Amino acid sequence: xxxxxxxxxxxxxxxxxxxxxxxxxxxxxxxxxxxxxxxxxxxxxxxxxxxxxxxxxxxxxxxxxxxxxxxxxxxxxxxxxxxxxxxxxxxxxxxxxxxxxxxxxxxxxxxxxxxxxxxxxxxxxxxxxxxxxxxxxxxxxxxxxxxxxxxxxxxxxxxxxxxxxxxxxxxxxxxxxxxxxxxxxxxxxxxxxxxxxxxxxxxxxxxxxxxxxxxxxxxxxxxxxxxxxxxxxxxxxxxxxxxxxxxxxxxxxxxxxxxxxxxxxxxxxxxxxxxxxxxxxxxxxxxxxxxxxxxxxxxxxxxxxxxxxxxxxxxxxxxxxxxxxxxxxxxxxxxxxxxxxxxxxxxxxxxxxxxxxxxxxxxxxxxxxxxxxxxxxxxxxxxxxxxxxxxxxxxxxxxxxxxxxxxxxxxxxxxxxxxxxxxxxxxxxxxxxxxxxxxxxxxxxxxxxxxxxxxxxxxxxxxxxxxxxxxxxxxxxxxxxxxxxxxxxxxxxxxxxxxxxxxxxxxxxxxxxxxxxxxxxxxxxxxxxxxxxxxxxxxxxxxxxxxxxxxxxxxxxxxxxxxxxxxxxxxxxxxxxxxxxxxxxxxxxxxxxxxxxxxxxxxxxxxxxxxxxxxxxxxxxxxxxxxxxxxxxxxxxxxxx
Length: 641
Description:
Layout: H1 2-21, H2 25-35, E1 51-58, E2 69-72, E3 75-78, E4 84-90, E5 94-100, E6 107-112, E7 116-123, H3 133-136, E8 142-147, H4 158-161, E9 167-172, E10 175-184, E11 190-191, E12 203-212, E13 215-224, E14 230-237, E15 240-247, E16 250-256, E17 265-272, E18 275-280, E19 283-289, E20 298-305, E21 310-320, E22 335-342, E23 353-356, E24 366-368, E25 374-377, E26 384-390, E27 397-402, E28 406-413, E29 432-437, H5 448-451, E30 457-461, E31 469-473, E32 481-485, E33 495-503, E34 512-519, E35 535-540, E36 544-550, E37 555-561, E38 572-579, E39 582-587, E40 590-596, E41 605-611, E42 620-629
Parallel strand pairs: 1-7, 22-28
Antiparallel strand pairs: 1-4, 2-3, 2-5, 5-6, 8-21, 9-10, 10-21, 11-20, 12-17, 12-21, 13-14, 13-20, 14-15, 15-16, 17-18, 18-19, 22-25, 23-24, 23-26, 26-27, 29-42, 30-31, 31-42, 32-41, 33-38, 33-42, 34-35, 34-41, 35-36, 36-37, 38-39, 39-40
């Protein structure tokens, strides 16, 4: 027991000693506070403010635009059939929105959004030079490819993307806002992608083209260079289009496919179940079924412009076919134009010829004003129209018009030109003018020999009237034969051909000239029978003027002599008519020849030829070349008989 108390006493004494030597309570508290680290309380993460946007893209009429590209920052969406795009989870209240669509002008807008759902609608303006998808394909077709170049890009045309020499995107001549694809001399072939990306099968390729200057080109359809170079070739040059089949070096000419003139043209090239069809400006050029059709392929441009020539291409599209091809109908653009033509006194000008260049060679590109001087076009392709007016006796008119969608009405006053014949000077009131050339613009439209500067043919000042431009035929030292023919594709029947001509001196005995009436360019008659060369020929020489029927066999139908022959040194008026088989020749108001043909020649054109054997033979001058359609038997312009 004592031992226990001894141990307890010693422990108590030792504890008291330790307590006296340790830190004070204040120190212990300080030490405790310094060694304690507070645990922070959890804080709430702020919820971000998000914005959702539903945007409807519409055209100027409020109709939805499908396929519009809409971009906000790094996000892009394509509008659906209702024109709607949606953006979810946008983090900015103020956004910039970019909108673009084929056939419309690109647009940039800014918008302020509210948290949550937002709905906007934005209208795009029509691009006057763009191609709307709904106008790229005909009803029932499906769009496969479209490029109108208006965004400064040429999708999958490597020659443009790589900036190869002699290829470019540039403004159309005279239309700075219209970007087109251009090729100059030395340009390489231009291929759309390759046949693995674009293997067009039952489809149609459409493009607009304009050739300024000389040269030719190949437009290659279903092009397969990897398969030994197989393609259908549409060869194009001024005045000629033809279809060829090229198969690994075997080149077969299928046939002609149209005659493009000046200006822009629409070419449609289709393939459906082996049948290839080529249409120019809506008119069938050639349709041919290939017994061994070429495989599907891409398209390519193969231009060969000469010298300073430039070839332009625009509005290229390819559309899939589910049925045999039919040409695309005129797009219902809603752009309509009505004209009223008057003279300085406000009188209407009838039978004036007015053309819209943008319509190319479509049937209604050129219209004739009625008795009130009025004419009208519907559904013009652009809001800008290049208008040309030619009226007998008036200064030619040309102007670019700025139009609106809807009805446009214009009244135009034409200026009288005293050197041009009026309508009354070339046609009787009951006749209809169908062709007139007075040469005052320094051209002989449609006369290929004059246009090409053939030897012996020229335009000159009239010998008796300063400033009056006329046509001339004179001695040709190379062949001694000078000839030309209206080669515009225009033919006549039941009509009268009137013009003035002047031999400067009397012909020598072995020289003569002739006028060819109803000269048939097609070697078939109205029944489809092959006839070869056919025409009524009116030859004249030193002492006679004759009428012949040129068709095997040649028939001499009559002759006029003496005072009924052309007078040298003065203007002679000749009228050559055919109405219901009766052909008449009138000279200076006197009937000199006629013939009733029981087997009348088919429609034809007009031509002239001269056999001038000596340099002293006369120069033949011609002026006021006109053809007027007849609805009743012929009556002379000068005598009324």
